[in-house]
## 1
Amino acid sequence: MSDYQAMQAKLVAEIDAAADLDAVEALRVAALGKAGSVSALLKTLGGMTPDERQTQGPQIHALREAVTNALAARKAALEGAALEAKLAAERLDMTLPADAAPKGSVHPVSQVMDEIAEIFADMGFAVATGPEIEDDWRNFTALNIPETHPARAMHDTFYFPDKDAEGRAMLLRTHTSPVQVRTMMSKEPPIRIIAPGRVYRSDSDATHTPMFHQVEGLVIDRDIHMGHLKWTLETFLKAFFERDDIVLRLRPSYFPFTEPSAEVDVGYRQEKGRRIVGGHGDDDGHAWMELLGSGMVNRRVLANCGLDPDAWQGFAFGIGIDRLAMLKYGMDDLRAFFDGDLRWLSHYGFGALNVPTLSGGISA
Ligand code: 2NL
């Protein structure tokens, strides 16, 4: 056996016997490190004659290769053994119950929107949606709201600094009416839609938030009248509040986009500091509460939206969703709706799987 072979056998035996990864590393440094024994041998090649190098070079390189392979093999074996030991020690019991995952809940506004959509779907209404960034023609002009109307003032409306491609002022919609305008301009009557969504007004106090939620309804056909309006609202409110004793009072009012216009009150009474909807507002212990605005779509609005006012007519209404949610579920502070406080949500939030249906119960 040559000296090189003897040295290789000794080094490989030491490596194979290394007890742990630290020992393998120490042997690597001792053999292949800067001052290692194998590195020293490689350096002797420089001082050899060509003949010596030709015979000894391959042996030295074979030695280095054998040592390198032995180091890699021992390292892999030790790492494999460590993993096996870890797997054996950390046995998983697949029969244990899983940790509870954090549970989300449906926001009351989303819940009430779903309830409203379900009730109106049963009466043949489709849900229509549109952009929250609108132009002043669709938000105001088409609705017969004059340039000088106070609602248009900077004070109430969030305007964008630039105008759109047609030169119209851009704004955050102040109601969902532009969705109905878009529908009238793009679809042939009969139309039966509700338009729920976020709306924006520059207003902020205990009972007003700059963003809030509204649902508007629109019905257009050949001979729609206010009787249809009252029946539709009564049927909706009975289903929404789940009571048959809902009594409505229509009061003459004014909106630029409806003629005639009516404000709709609902009878209620106070119970343990909470308003409970139901009963005739003039009955003992009862009163009237204004709930929504409505009316027959103004002929000018129909014409602005491309419909012949002598052929088509219809009713429209608008309700605040946040207030409906407060009334139904007994919440007293509007601002808490948009605070993002999860404690409020876990108190008032709704299960994601309790989807409102008429067949299964509309309420959460
Ligand atoms: C209110 C009043 C209302 C409408 C909204 C409407 C929409 C079109 C045409 C005609 Cl496109 N009317 N919407 C009508 C009457 C009242 O809302 O006080 N809401 C809380």
Note: The chain has a mean pLDDT of 93.
## 2
Amino acid sequence: MCGIVAYVGSQNAAPILMEGLFRLEYRGYDSAGIAVMTARGSQVCKQVGRVRELEAALPRRLAGKAGIGHTRWATHGAVTQENAHPQVSEDGRISVVHNGIIDNAMDLREVLIGKGETFSSETDTEVVAHLIARSGGDRLEDAVLDALGQITGTYALAVTDADHPDRIVVATNGSTLILGVGDREMFVASDLSALVRHTTSVVHLDDGELATVTASGFRTFSKEQENTAKTPVSIDLQAEDVDLGGHQHFMRKEILEQPSSTERMLRGRLDERYGTARLDGLNLGPRELRGFRRLKMLGCGSAYYVGQIGAQLVEELARMPADAEPASEFRYRNPVIEPDTLYVAVSQSGETADTAFAVREVKRKGGQVVGLVNVVGSTIARECDGGIYLHAGPEIAVASTKALTHMGLGFALLALALGRVRDLSITDGQRIASGLLALPDQIAQVLADEPAIAEIAASLAAARSLFFIGRVRGFPVAREGAQKFKEVTYRHAEAYQASELKHGPLALIDASLPTVAVVPDDELKGRNLTAIEQIAARGGRVVPITHPGVAELAARGANITVPKNELELDPILLTIPVQLLAYHAAHALGLDIDKPRNLAKSVTVE
Ligand code: AGP
């Protein structure tokens, strides 16, 4: 959703801002705009639609060494040019780009209208521009602070003042903003991917922090105007990480990266000798880990489904009660927070509003929450008490793939560490550690079957509706399979426990409704086979995702087989084919795979 870029330095700002906006496209947006500090004051260009349409609409001459840019996902007000950002003050002097929501914007707007101000958009952001412009102070910093004192809500803001074109003032509260430090130039972005082409030296702003950036550097400070001396850190990210690198789609690139990315994630985190995991980032010693009596995983969408895989791993390896709940529901039901429960927030982006609010709810009530997060320095990563970084690298496609696999690995490491301070024997710990180390190669083996899986996917793309079924370990895989299929193919896909089919949905089965059945070689194999027979007997087509040892399915043809790992870890590997099925079905349908309609990469609004 919404994205911010800003630049001040010796180069022409407009091309740098545009390049940044192209980098932010993957987050999802419906309009875009920039403001450049030119010799004739602030010049603002906005456009509904894609960034390339904004680029086409830019005036030929747009020279200026500082500016701000934005991709907007409509919340307050329709998708119109007027509502796109930057929003400007009535006199055109102040320009503002904003991620987040100003809760008291309506009230402030009324007050300002009462004082004679007129508004040209329906946005909450325009209120901020007006407040800043009205503030009497000489310095832009003071005017921004004055406005912040009047607003409530979440924000990442970047502000320019045509009277002070040498500086940009930025502020955050519950929404990420990162400074990029260059050589006599400074960059600002809400996402590292918009910075990585220019610098790897960055400063993550904390909640409540502000910064003034000029060509010669930056100053960070608090709302109380105290300097908050920040040292830039170096990020381990290359420009190629956010490029297509010869692939047609990011989704496929990211699926294919998994053997190397998972190998990188596991490196150094397994202690094979003692059959356990090294998770220093959790900030929890063995005694503290032993003190917890249950776990609750909190995430949204696919992250919630992987949370279910994680809960099973914890129950199996650590024999502790564990469950997963959508963070979007948890935060609204006044949850009982138990002191001996470890809450685990799981998120690729680390910016999902529902998950971030769930973290705050746990913390507000004195609970302990750790994060399984991919984006370093993101809101959720910062707000948790500790955590496990997923190290999947940037994920650009809206449909999450590699980050989910890394979440599965993160949960396996956590379950192993919890198990080994309880009753999991050293031999079993070593067995799981070896299973984890075997996963990258096994993922490569699944990916080697891509042509056959693509063929099956193309045949599934013809169906208007599908079932994905599984039981216990296979069920979260089925849920993720249905989710991924829906997301990128726009086909209806529904996940069911195989055991529940006979209680109703079997009525829908006929030759037009295929079923993808997740059938691990485990103690439920026989029962899964029975469900498959029931579907076949009613003329339904079944595509099993299974293990080589399930001989009964080997004869059926059109199976997808994945290598067998340890029973507890099997769901992680069984998920790889559902990624390929969704990708290739969408490809067969000729859809915009990386940017499915109506969806955003990180859902930063409720
Ligand atoms: C996954 O393919 C989806 N795009 C979506 O369900 C996603 O997993 C969910 O929005 C959570 O995102 P997060 O991991 O960034 O928190």
Note: The first strand starts at residue 3 and ends at 8.
## 3
Amino acid sequence: MATQADPHADAIEEIFTTVAALAPDIRDALPGRRVQNDETNPSGETQLAADIYADELFREHLGALDSVVEYASEERTKIVPTDGEEDTGLSVAIDPLDGSSNLKSNNTMGTIVAVYDAPLPAAGSDLVAAAYVLFGPITTMITADGDGVTEYLVDDGVREVITEDVQLPDDPSVYGFGGRVPDWPDDFTAYTEDIESDDSMKLRYGGAMIGDINQVLIYGGVFAYPALESAPNGKLRLQFEGNPIGFIIESAGGRSSDGTQSLLDVEPNDVHQRVPVYVGNDELIEQLEASLD
Ligand code: FDP
């Protein structure tokens, strides 16, 4: 995994500060943006007006930073070159509103940010930082900068540290698996039965990856959006979801996998490529990799 290179420390901090500062605007805009927009995003999903609003806001503010040379979003087909300094600039890939289908039912959603020291599409090993904002009952932010994971409360757009050096607990207790159960391959179904047979483990699944990941970080456990019979690469995207979440979970002492290798080692070939995502406590991901053949 990449570690934070000193030359990027200020730039990473500036990106995190910008994302946190926009959180109140995004939260305030949600009540009036629960309707669907006619357009579909590059992955073929219907966009909500909230997705488009958040994407525009991040492009405007992150794209204006000297430290950012490329902006890519799950909501845009193309990578947007920005005016940052080419020699030292970083590439930002963002999922402006992960779990936006939860807006209608008023459940958790969030914003995911990946900061790469390479042109996009980039490998997880090129990440220098990743973060997410969670719009739950309160707004929190998790950051990883190669030097540890920190949880913040975001109050009026300003971060206040809740926990430094966040680590996955040693005694995992929750699991959440996405996709339709009949669409799961047999080997993954066998793994889920092993997990369910452990009476210390409890199913908790909210349908927004970022919320389901956050409970794994806080309680310990495993999250999967697996390869499906109908979609061998699963649903989630490598640049916007798999890589940053893999980086955060590995930075917190856990493990990530696409079924055979760390998510951070997956070869990037397209900005919107999908990847099966498995993250959680080390032993649970080891058990998963042994179960999948
Ligand atoms: P959403 O479509 O609501 O934005 O990748 C996006 C995502 O949500 C994830 O947050 C979530 O884990 C997954 O899709 C859920 O998708 P399905 O309900 O189609 O399984």
Note: The first helix runs from residue 9 to 29.
## 4
Amino acid sequence: MAESAPRKVDMEKLVSLCRRRGFIFPSSEIYGGLSSCWDYGPLGVELKRNIKQAWWRAVVQERDDMVGLDASILMHPQTWEASGHLGGFVDPLVECKSCHLRWRSDDLKGDKCPSCGGELTEPRLFNLMFKTFIGPVEEEASVVYLRPETAQGMFVNFENVLNTTRKRLPFGIAQIGKAFRNEVTTGNFIFRCREFEQMEIEFFVKPETDKQWFDYWLEERLNWYVKLGIKRENLRLRQHTKEELAHYARECYDIDYLYPMGWAELEGIANRGDFDLVQHAKSSGKSLVYYDEETKEHVVPYIIEPSAGVDRTALALLCDAYDEDVAEGEKRVLLHLHPALAPIKVAVLPLSRKEPLAPLAKEIYADLRQQWMVNYDDAQSIGRRYRRQDEIGTPFCVTIDFQSLEDKQVTIRERDSLKQIRVPIESLKKTLAAKLGGEDLFVLPPGGSVWKE
Ligand code: ATP
């Protein structure tokens, strides 16, 4: 696949924009931050909410074969024995004998410390799960783990969902939630965090149909990113080699995004076979099977798992949307975010902050706020205010000028094309609603669904 045109954003620029405008802050910054933990600020939280809403809409709301779940983060410790996480969820680590930095040995190119060139120890296995205690006594018997993935909550609820929803195969469970990993290699901003959010699907199918459903979800998930506006040339599919396959997987593909540091995993799609249900049935003593009324047989469903990260999607969207150009004779930074993802949909900008414009502008602001996240900005020149909105990806600015008092019209200015149109205040909401997308919020660009590599 061809490399894309030279990127206008490097990670430093993006981190700085996110910090400066209130998308993302280092966690506990006043104490110097906490390694690989991040706080989403006023704009970041909106972006994240919009991503999750778009995902939920696509995989639950618009489908009749999917239902949602919100399982607890703390799970019975036996879960992690059955899943293989207690035994297998480990990274081999080496430590530098001089500077004592630790490295993932499978990431290293040579046999010396990448930081100081020092000698390294033999690899040691390190479990990535965070441990904590349940109840008042800190003893081995009360050890629980912060879940390293949301998936297990869906496997252990398979029977509950089956019995309460009366779904038949194939059907899926979707869940969005926090996951925790004591990652060894960290960095690259929100790409690899120790606390992050996942959007996972566990899709249960008849064993003989696994290949067909695996291919289906691969295409479906790839298309989703394109519908969000991510450029096709910045996405690719990468098949896991036999050596790379996780212990539970029969087949696995990553959807990679071309981040500023290079191609890296945005979402993983795995055919987990019957591994999880068999393991949990063994460990719990419950029979986790499905009765197929057509064949009158009991089967253990196979599971297709598309597993995405909210944070990595946010990072991909920000990288992809970032642009610099010249508008109205001035350099500007802008985010070409899809209107449905933009944190703020509309900014209301009165030309003057005094009477009689302010009351009219405030009235419009109050009205639009009923429907969307809206900013009100009356500070500095109109050009500066447009720049501020462009930089956070606000698709539309509504300007109220002195003429508005006479003709009861306002100007809508569009972020990407810079086009301006004059509309009656009366129909402003309707015009904006049409522009912000109604029924078909996310559509594929022409040819967008062809995913042959
Ligand atoms: P990597 O190889 O990059 O460590 P992984 O293969 O361990 O990722 P999965 O276990 O497949 O990741 O998790 C599914 C998804 O969860 C990933 O595609 C990613 O979007 C997200 N994810 C996993 N680990 C992290 C992390 N430390 N920080 C942010 N997101 C993560």
Note: The two ends are 7 Å apart (CA to CA).
